[in-house]
Amino acid sequence: MPPFLPLALALATPAQTGIEPAVLAEINFARTRPRDYAEQLRAYRRHFKGKIVWYPGNPDGLRTEEGTRAVDEAIRFLERQAPLEPIEPATLLARAARDHVREQGPRGGTGHYSADGANPRDRVQRRGGGSYVAEVITYGPPSAVEVVRQLIVDDAVPGRGHRKTLFAAEMRYAGVACGPHQGYRVMCVADLGRKPDGHP
């Protein structure tokens, strides 16, 4: 079973609604056209001043831990990455992801565990699925582009676990859920599996 992955945290602007399909589309753009996605990161890189990035739509700036180092490392990864099959949407996985957003967002929690101790596998199994799932979460990014960029750059995340999950060839299905968060304004959860129900 894949390990639970560390969190991606960021400062927030007000949440957009209904971005889940756009998040999956952006993930698939990166998976199927990694070199084109690398070009987008090159454009993003130009907005850095030291460790703060002042990209359009974010007038307050976003402080990063690694600055351009993480972006450059992501670009190198993408240039070597072979195109992958797109990820298909999965209703059961989306419901499990939504369960986490609804439970965690109002109380301002973070992490892969629910207040009752449930982990991603538990949440998928409660929905009638299997246990072979991986989960990635962002707190703060309000748009699909920002969500996926944060997961792929993976600033300050040892091992770049979010990126590895998004580019795991065996992960062919995903469910995405985003919603309000008490501390970071918005959170997005993506549960991924080999099968649409999380079975091996």
From TrEMBL:
Which InterPro entries does the record associate with it? Answer: CAP_dom (IPR014044), CAP_sf (IPR035940)
The record places domain SCP at 76-188
Task: Enumerate the residue ranges of region (Disordered).
Answer: 99-127
Segments passing through the bilayer: none
Q: Name one Pfam family in it.
A: CAP
Q: Which CDD domains match?
A: CAP_bacterial
What is the top-level taxon of the source organism?
A: Bacteria
Q: This chain belongs to which protein, by name? A: Uncharacterized protein YkwD
